[in-house]
């Protein structure tokens, strides 16, 4: 019998749980109304043929009879609208499937030490599978070794860890290709600028794989293919709208000739747009704006002509997470990297219908 209930109170107190007002385990949480859940709206293009209710059906944990699939999820925090969408999707999916799934959820409030503490609690709880998005790439060896020693498979979600730490430290990763996203952003940027211009870059959280790899993809493409595009400056905005605005304000004070900004996520792009407007310039025209994520706010900005492009990075991962967790519990082998299929959206493709159809 899993020790979920016994240890739940301690975890809740230690972590200051939980985003979205739910308790730290979905077994006690009432299922939200279907219309409140992200997955209740149309699925991303590649999944559009599936009805929402079909998506909400949990995989059966075949080899364990009636025993539920117990998953510990150590979320990073609430830095962006994208992160909230991922949290909502995971909690909603678990709440829709309480007959087969038990979710222990921790909000680490942007701190690696809190994620590590939550993972250690999940080990104590003897959950079936641990899933978490590593806030940064490094520093996971000790706690992941403990997971291994406890025989608990680990799913990395939406971000990776430093490869030199050893790929055998985790079981699989369910995530987008962040290098690809950076490259796609650079390709669109080159088009927007007609091959010539000065760009500033708003980076995500220092040391996060999503930031490191998006930067690598963007900077390498520009360096190798765009001799007349100069990256004037590149600084972290920590994936938040507030810091995106603040750093863009400082770029605008330092440089009078910025043609474009590449933002590692849409929240920072939305903050940068505010800063550009407050400086008396027109975002999307005077300064081109390219982001990553594909959140609804970015689509609204593209429709308003204030943003030029977003490269999608889907946060709708719950079904894959629980499906994969069930397979791991059943002793099945899964791919080392389960890659999301994402799209690239430019402003000319965006209509009100497209905005309304966005799932997150
Ligand atoms: O790891 C995914 C990134 O984390 C998203 O792009 C960003 O919005 C989030 O905070």
Q: Element order, helices and strands? A: HHEHEHEHEEHEHEHEHEHEHEEH
How far apart are the termini? Answer: 36 Å
| Count of distinct strands | 12
Strand order of the largest sheet: 2-1-3-4-5-11
Structural class comes to alpha/beta
Shape: elongated
Enumerate how many helices there are, as a single number.
12
Please compute the radius of gyration using only Cα atoms: 21 Å
What is the overall pLDDT average?
A: 87
The residue fraction in helices comes out at: 25-40%
Q: Can you lay out the helices and strands and say which pair or pack?
A:
Elements: H1 4-15, H2 52-55, E1 69-75, H3 81-96, E2 101-107, H4 112-125, E3 129-132, H5 141-150, E4 154-157, E5 172-175, H6 178-192, E6 197-203, H7 209-225, E7 229-236, H8 241-254, E8 260-263, H9 266-278, E9 288-293, H10 296-303, E10 309-312, H11 318-329, E11 337-339, E12 344-346, H12 352-357
Parallel strand pairs: 1-2, 1-3, 3-4, 4-5, 5-11, 6-7, 6-8, 8-9, 9-10
Antiparallel strand pairs: 10-12
The structure holds alpha-L-arabinofuranose.
């Amino acid at each position: 019998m899993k020790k979920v209930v016994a240890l739940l109170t301690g975890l809740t107190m230690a972590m200051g749980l939980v985003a979205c007002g739910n308790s730290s385990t979905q077994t006690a949480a009432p299922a939200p109304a279907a219309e409140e859940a992200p997955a209740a709206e149309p699925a991303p293009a590649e999944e559009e043929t599936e009805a929402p209710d079909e998506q909400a059906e949990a995989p059966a944990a075949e080899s364990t009879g009636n025993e539920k699939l117990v998953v510990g999820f150590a979320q990073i925090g609430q830095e962006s609208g994208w992160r909230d969408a991922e949290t909502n999707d995971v909690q909603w999916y678990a709440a829709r499937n309480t007959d087969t799934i038990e979710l222990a959820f921790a909000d680490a409030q942007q701190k690696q030490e809190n994620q590590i503490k939550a993972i250690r609690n999940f080990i104590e709880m003897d959950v079936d599978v641990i899933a978490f998005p590593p806030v940064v790439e490094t520093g996971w060896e000790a706690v992941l070794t403990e997971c291994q020693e406890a025989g608990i498979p680990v799913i990395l979600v939406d971000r990776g860890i430093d490869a030199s730490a050893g790929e055998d430290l985790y079981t699989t990763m369910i995530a987008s290709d962040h290098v690809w996203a950076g490259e796609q952003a650079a390709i669109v940027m080159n088009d927007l600028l007609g091959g010539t211009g000065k760009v500033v870059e708003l980076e995500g959280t220092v040391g996060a794989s999503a930031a490191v790899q998006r930067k690598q993809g963007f900077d390498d493409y520009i360096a190798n293919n765009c001799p007349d595009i100069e990256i004037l400056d590149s600084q972290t905005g920590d994936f938040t709208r507030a810091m995106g605005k603040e750093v863009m304000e400082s770029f605008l004070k330092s440089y009078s000739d910025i043609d474009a900004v590449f933002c590692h996520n849409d929240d920072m792009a939305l903050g940068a747009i505010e800063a550009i407007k407050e400086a008396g310039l027109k975002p999307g025209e005077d300064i081109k704006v390219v982001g990553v994520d594909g959140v609804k706010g970015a689509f609204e900005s593209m429709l308003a002509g204030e943003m030029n492009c977003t490269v999608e990075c889907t946060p709708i991962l719950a079904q894959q997470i629980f499906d994969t967790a069930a397979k791991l519990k059943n002793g099945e082998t899964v791919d080392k990297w389960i890659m999301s299929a994402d799209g690239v959206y430019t402003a000319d493709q965006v209509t009100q219908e497209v905005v309304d159809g966005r799932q997150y």
